[in-house]
C-alpha cells in the first residue's frame, strides 16, 4: 500500500515551508535580538531587541516572555502596492469601462502560490488591484500575504483606493462600432488613448453634474458617484497605471482638472522624464521592477518604455513620495529587496530605499497606523536578515507575520528561492 501526499504538503515541501508551518503553530511571543534594527521610523537601533506579544510589537528593548531569535538585522515587513495576484480578466467587469463600484476582493484567489512566494521574500502586506482592462477598474483592498484562509482574517483595509488605467490597456480588444461589423460587448469605445481619457473625464463630470443639477440616477450610479466624490474629498486615493510619458502628462492634467488630492502613478516607468511635472501636480509614484535590459515591456501595447535606474533617486531629491514594487513575479530580480538594492545602486540612500518598501507605500494607502514601521503597538510584521538589508550578499532568513513565525531563521536552508 502506497502512502499518498496531499498536493498542499507537496507544495509546502517544494517551497521549503515545512519549518515555517510548524513554527506558525508555536508561541506568538518572541524576542528578536539583532545587531541592527531598522525601524523606518527613526534612527537605527544597534544591538537592540524587538519584543513581540499577541501579534503586536510590545516593546523596543527590555525583556519578554517569548522565545529568542538572534539575527543580524531586522526591518519592518515590506508593503507592496503593485502585487499582481488576481483572476485576470475575471477580476474586472468587462461589460463597462467604468466599473467604479466593483471590488477586487470578490475575485481574489487567497490560495495562490504567489502569496507564499511574496511572503518568503519579506512582503507581509499588499495592495490587491483589479487587472487593467477598464478605464476605472474598481476598488482595491489591502491585505496580509499570509494568515487565515478567509479574507476577513487577512484584510487590513477594504476599499483602500480606486484603480484606474490610462494608455492603451483599457482600449485593447475594443472595436469601433460599424454597421457592417460584428456586434459584441467589445464593439464600443474607447479605442484610442484619447478615448480612454474621455471615458475617465466623463465619469467624473457625470458625478459632478448629478450633484450640481440634482439629476436622477440609478442606485448603482449613485454608489459610483459617491466613490468618485470620496476621491475628490481626499478620502480615497486614486492609483492610476501610467507607463508612458504621455500617460503621465494625462494623469497630471486630470489630477489638476478635477482637483484629485491623492493620486498614485503606478508602473510609472517613464515618469522620471517628467519628474518636475509630477512634483508640481503633487502625485506619488509607484515604480515598476527595474528591467534587466533597461526597458519595461507592455504586454497590452506590444511596446517598450525606457526606464532609468536612478528614477527613484531623482524623485527622492525632489521630495516626491515613492514606492517600489516587485509585482510578485517569479523573477528573482523582481523581489522587493532586490528592487530596493537596485534603487540604491541608482543613487537612492539606504533609509529612503527602506521607506520605499515599507512606510511610504503604507502611507499612500492609509494603513501606516498598523504596518510599515517597527513601532510599539503596530502589527508584528518583521523581516529578519543574515546581513545588511538589500546587499547582494544578504538575504531574508526569517519572517514574522502578525506575531507568527512563518519563516524560521533557525531552519534557514541557504536557498532563498
CATH homologous superfamily caption of the largest domain: Metal-dependent hydrolases
What is the level 1 CATH name of the largest domain? Alpha Beta
**Stretches with pLDDT under 50, minimum 5 residues:** 1-24, 413-417
CATH topology of the largest domain: TIM Barrel
Mean pLDDT equals 87
- SSE arrangement, N to C: HHEEEEEHEEHEHHEHEHEEEHEHHHEEE
Coarse morphology: globular
Say what oligomer this is.
Answer: single chain
- CATH architectural group of the largest domain: Alpha-Beta Barrel
**Sheet with the most strands, sense and barrel status:** 8 strands, mixed
Secondary-structure-based class equals alpha/beta
Number of domains: 2
Helical coverage, percent range? 25-40%
Radius of gyration from the CA trace?
22 Å
Strand order of the largest sheet: 5-6-7-8-9-10-11-14
**Strand tally, please?**
17
> What fraction of the residues are assigned to beta strands by DSSP?
15-25%
Number of helices: 12
Report what the structure shows.
It is a single chain. This protein has 417 residues and is α/β, with parallel strands linked by helices. The chain folds into two domains: 89 residues, Urease, subunit C, domain 1 (Roll); 294 residues, Metal-dependent hydrolases (TIM Barrel, Alpha-Beta Barrel). The chain is 28% helix and 24% strand. The chain has twelve helices and 17 strands. An eight-stranded mixed β-sheet has the order 5-6-7-8-9-10-11-14. It has a seven-stranded mixed β-sheet with strand order 3-2-1-4-15-16-17. Helix 5 crosses helix 6, helix 5 packs parallel to helix 7 and helix 10 packs antiparallel against helix 11. The longest helix has 21 residues. The N terminus and C terminus are likely disordered.
Amino acid at each position: 500500500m502506497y502512502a499518498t501526499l496531499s498536493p498542499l504538503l507537496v507544495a509546502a515541501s517544494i517551497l521549503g515551508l515545512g519549518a515555517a508551518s510548524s513554527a506558525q503553530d508555536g508561541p506568538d511571543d518572541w524576542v528578536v535580538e539583532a545587531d541592527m534594527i531598522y525601524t523606518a521610523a527613526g534612527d537605527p537601533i544597534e544591538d537592540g531587541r524587538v519584543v513581540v506579544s499577541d501579534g503586536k510589537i510590545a516593546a523596543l528593548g527590555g525583556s519578554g516572555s517569548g522565545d529568542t531569535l538572534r539575527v543580524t538585522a531586522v526591518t519592518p515587513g515590506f508593503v507592496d502596492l503593485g502585487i499582481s495576484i488576481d483572476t485576470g480578466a475575471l477580476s474586472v467587469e468587462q461589460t463597462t469601462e467604468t466599473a467604479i463600484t466593483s471590488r477586487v476582493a470578490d475575485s481574489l484567489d487567497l490560495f495562490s502560490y504567489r502569496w507564499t512566494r511574496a511572503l518568503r521574500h519579506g512582503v507581509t502586506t499588499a495592495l490587491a488591484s483589479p487587472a487593467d482592462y477598464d478605464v476605472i477598474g474598481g476598488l482595491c483592498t489591502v491585505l496580509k500575504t499570509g494568515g487565515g484562509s478567509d479574507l476577513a482574517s487577512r484584510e487590513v483595509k477594504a476599499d483602500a483606493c480606486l484603480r484606474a488605467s490610462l494608455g492603451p490597456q483599457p482600449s485593447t480588444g475594443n472595436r469601433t462600432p460599424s454597421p457592417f461589423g460584428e456586434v459584441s460587448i467589445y464593439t464600443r469605445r474607447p479605442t484610442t488613448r484619447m478615448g480612454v481619457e474621455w471615458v475617465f473625464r466623463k465619469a467624473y463630470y457625470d458625478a459632478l453634474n448629478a450633484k450640481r443639477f440634482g439629476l436622477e440616477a440609478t442606485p448603482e450610479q449613485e454608489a459610483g458617484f459617491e466613490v468618485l466624490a470620496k476621491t475628490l474629498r481626499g478620502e480615497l486615493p486614486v492609483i492610476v497605471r501610467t507607463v508612458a510619458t504621455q500617460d503621465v502628462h494625462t494623469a497630471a492634467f486630470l489630477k489638476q482638472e478635477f482637483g484629485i488630492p491623492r493620486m498614485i502613478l503606478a508602473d510609472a516607468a517613464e515618469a522620471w522624464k517628467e519628474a518636475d511635472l509630477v512634483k508640481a501636480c503633487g502625485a506619488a509614484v509607484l515604480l515598476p521592477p527595474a528591467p534587466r535590459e533597461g526597458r519595461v515591456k507592455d504586454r497590452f501595447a506590444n511596446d517598450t518604455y525606457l526606464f532609468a535606474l536612478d528614477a527613484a533617486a531623482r524623485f527622492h531629491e525632489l521630495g516626491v513620495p515613492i514606492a517600489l514594487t516587485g509585482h510578485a513575479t517569479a523573477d528573482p530580480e523582481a523581489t522587493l529587496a532586490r528592487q530596493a538594492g537596485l534603487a540604491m545602486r541608482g543613487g537612492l540612500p539606504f533609509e529612503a530605499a527602506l521607506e520605499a518598501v515599507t512606510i511610504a507605500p503604507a502611507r499612500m494607502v492609509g494603513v501606516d497606523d498598523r504596518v510599515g514601521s517597527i513601532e510599539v503597538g503596530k502589527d508584528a510584521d518583521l523581516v529578519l536578515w543574515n546581513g545588511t538589508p538589500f546587499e547582494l550578499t544578504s538575504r531574508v532568513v526569517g519572517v514574522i507575520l502578525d506575531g507568527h513565525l512563518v519563516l524560521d531563521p533557525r531552519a534557514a536552508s541557504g536557498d532563498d528561492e
